Amino acid sequence: MFDISLYISLSLALAGILLQIFKLNKTSSARHKLKNLKFNIISGLFNTIFQIKLFKASRIRWVVHFLVFAGFIFLLLFHALDELISMKLFSYYEPTVDPYQFLRNFAGFIVAVGCIGFLLKKFYSAKSDQRIKGEYKNLFSIFLILLIICSGFMLESSKIISEPIFMEMVEDYAGIDEDSGLDDLKVFWAKNYNIVFEQPVVSSEELLEEGRILNEDYCLYCHSKISSAFVSNILSDGLKKTGSVLNHFRADRYLYHIHYLLSFLMLISLPFSRLFHIFLIPLASLKQQADVKTFQNRDIVFNSLTLAACTDCRICSDVCSVYPNFVIADNINVLPHYKINAFKKIISGAHLDVEELNRIKISNDECTRCNNCTDICPSNIDLQSLWEKLAYILNQTVPEAACLPDTLQFAKEHDILFSPTSFKNCVQCTICTNVCPVVGYCSNSENDMTPQQIMNLLRLGKKKMAAKTQMVNNCLTCYSCQESCPSEIKVTDILIELRQAGTKC
Amino acid sequence: MKLAYFPGCKINFYLKEYDLSFKSIMKKLSVELVELPFNCCGYPARDNDFEISLFSSIRNLAIAGQYNLDIITPCKCCYGQLQYASLQWKQLGDKTEDKNLKQKFNGLLARENLFWDGNTKIKHLLSFLYNAIGISQIQKRIKNRLPEKRVVTQYGCHALRPFSVTGFDNPHVPQIFEELINITGYKSVEWSKSTECCGNPILKRNRNLSLKILDSKLSAAIEAKADYICTACTHCQIQYSELEFQKECTKHNITPILFTQILDAAL
Q1: b/e per residue A39-76 (b: at least 16 CB within 10 A)
Q2: Residue A38 lies in a domain
Q3: What are phi and psi of A481, to 5 degrees?
């Protein structure tokens, strides 16, 4: 059963990985295919093994992640694959001998601690972070890992207390029976190794001494002190009361099946859950980030496959430069991790209505390309290029000018536009027009109105008309007009407000 | 002296050399820079929404205020925007909508344990060097005077105008930039377009017009027989080094150079 399920899950996992890679790579256009990416080997390896970027971003998260990562890798290599690795490397390897017994417990312990820390963080931020608003996503993998570890400890402790296993071992390795001191050995093991025997053994100093000698002769080579299995030992103390029932039903056999089946479930879920980042962070970490030259040359390369390395950690949104845009306008799409999800939706071919696309486009245009998110991304995803690519895609799908929802009361009430005192002093002296560089550089067809004509439109109450002029769009906001106005009219401020008014629905 | 360093969004990715040279000269002038988790200054949002841009600025000022530090920025658009917002905030009066806005912003800031008392001052690189350090002090520290090259200056609109908001220098006949360049050994030369816009603010909106303005500025600089155009603003420098544009205009054999790079070489 073990072998069959191993091969089934291995092939499923492999097929899943290939499928995912194929699917994601296909969505990248020819220029963006994997083979065209540039790689940076050394920093990539460092980020993969030590998670340097996560360390820089958040120490606590790094500790939690590294506990799970280091513990799990150890268990995978030296416990799960012990026949392939541990036994070949260490000639005296036995799972019940120190340091292997202790290390296995220790690794399991730190993985469990890491998982619990992870869950605590998740629940804490779901409660306190207004951006997440009580979302509990992506808990599957972490619970699965926790279950694997728990079942492992349960398996070990059920083996510790198991009389049937003891008898099998005696038969295989000691070959002693009641006549040659089996009871003495039982006494010794019941006391020192926590075994629960169906018929309680009667202990005495003498028998213990006999048992100790037999133990030295037959068992000690392969069995270190039980206390070094510090988690399972404590657990087995707890199991003692129900020990005879568990032994009767051979609970260890069931737990063994549960333990490896859960592990295989994890193997299968690799390409379909958040665990896929295990393969894609190395890939994303190896990829060289875009620099300013690639941007100036409009040579943006972004492979969607690296996007699957996103673990939804949201650290990018913590450092986002346009965070206030989200706070004021409550447009969550400006935050990087929401834009990542939007991008994933778009490339997966999901249908998004125009309004939704429009919102994403506005948000993406508000991005200042400050590179903060790319700098901090623990998965080293090249987000800077992603936003450029998103802008490119959105420009093609939503070509018409986007307009913002007009939710902001203050601007309406406070606008200079709405108070006639701000432009009624205009005497149409044309000084603003004469100093305006836009007027100077443009022919009449390139720029329809002059600043002084805009002031006149406002005096006539034609605000909407004024907002749609080329002058308002072309204004450099250089404040030459405002500085020169003899009536001290805030010409540039008015033009900027007209521009704002033009972007509202 | 200790100041909060406000790099602005573009420097980190688009103009790393400005960041490096700025830090280098501040170190040489023994000014300690503190890097705080600032957000965007609010200048880009001004085209869309007054409230977003104002809040962005106020949040930055509050972050610096938390440490009792004044802000220094090498970018003129950031400088202008922060000055503008700080003035707007102080001018909010007793009208209901003013009070509402104040209350809203203070509430949002309080969520992050922030509050702005209005005491944070904003300094631009050039006016800081000129007013706070002083020409004579810098002159004393000049170690290698640079060979005499002809340099024209690009002032940058948002620091220069409106004077009532920015208080940077005389908006019609500014001179601090020229004086600062002259102490390095380079020679600043007069040209007609020193205080005119570089065109960057509308690069996205109207690329043709933006580059037309740039083209004319470059021609004027060549007419003035300049070797370099010197900038002290992130956006101006980015505009002058538009790669695509440079390919089209190889005839303009003139290099844009950052003021911090000149001073760094001289100090």
Answers
A1: eeeeebeebbeebbbbbebbeebbebbbbbbbbbebbe
A2: no
A3: -65, -45
Q: Chain A partners of B160 at a C-beta cutoff of 8 Å? A: 479
Are residues A21 and A112 both part of a single domain? yes
E runs forming strands in B115-161: 122-124, 150-154
Q: Which domain holds residue A63?
A: 2-27+52-160+255-278
Cβ neighbours of A440 (radius 10 Å): 13
Rounded distance between C-alpha atoms, residue A393 and residue B69, angstroms: 42
Contacts 24+ apart (CB under 8 A), A330-338: A330/A407, A331/A359, A331/A362, A331/A363, A332/A131, A333/A359, A333/A360, A333/A362, A333/A363, A333/A364, A334/A363, A334/A366, A334/A367, A335/A131, A336/A373, A336/A383, A337/A310, A337/A312, A338/A363
The answer to whether position A243 is within a domain reads no
> Looking at the structure, do residues A286 and A349 belong to the same domain, yes or no?
yes
* Beta-carbon separation of A404 and B42 below 8 A: no
List phi, psi (to 5°) of A504. -85, 155
Sign of CA dihedral B181, B182, B187, B193: positive
Is residue A293 domain-resident? yes
User: Which residue type sits at A384?
Assistant: Q
State how far residue A291 is from chain B, nearest Cα, in angstroms. 7
Residues A180 and A119 in one domain: no
CATH of the domain at A451: 1.10.1060.10
Domain count of the fold of chain A: 4
Same domain, A332 and A361: yes
Among chain B residues, CA nearest to A317: B39
End-to-end Cα separation, chain A, in angstroms: 65
Q: For A39, phi and psi rounded to 5 degrees?
A: -120, 150
Contact A478 B12 (CB under 8 A): no
Q: One digit per residue, pLDDT tens: chain A, 505 residues?
A: 888 999 999 999 999 989 888 887 776 655 555 555 667 788 888 888 899 899 999 999 999 999 999 999 999 999 999 888 888 888 888 888 888 999 999 999 999 999 999 999 888 887 777 666 656 677 889 999 999 999 999 999 999 999 899 989 888 888 788 777 888 888 888 888 888 888 877 778 888 888 888 888 888 888 888 889 999 999 988 888 888 888 888 989 999 999 999 999 999 999 888 888 888 888 888 877 788 877 777 777 777 778 888 888 889 998 999 999 888 887 888 999 889 988 888 888 778 888 888 888 888 888 999 999 999 999 999 899 899 888 888 888 876 655 655 544 444 555 555 566 788 889 999 999 999 999 999 988 889 999 999 999 988 888 888 888 999 999 999 999 999 999 999 999 999 988 888 777 5
What is the pTM (predicted TM-score) of this model?
0.88
Residue with tokens 């920015």: B166
- Structural domain includes residue A404: no
B152 DSSP β-pair partners:
B229
* B172 touching A (Cβ < 8 Å): yes
A259 and A110 in one domain?
yes
ipTM of the complex: 0.94
* Closest chain A CA to residue B59: A324
Is residue A383 located within the same domain as residue A464? no
Q: Rounded distance, CA A415 to CA B177, Å?
A: 35
The answer to whether A426 and A432 have CB atoms below 8 angstroms apart is no
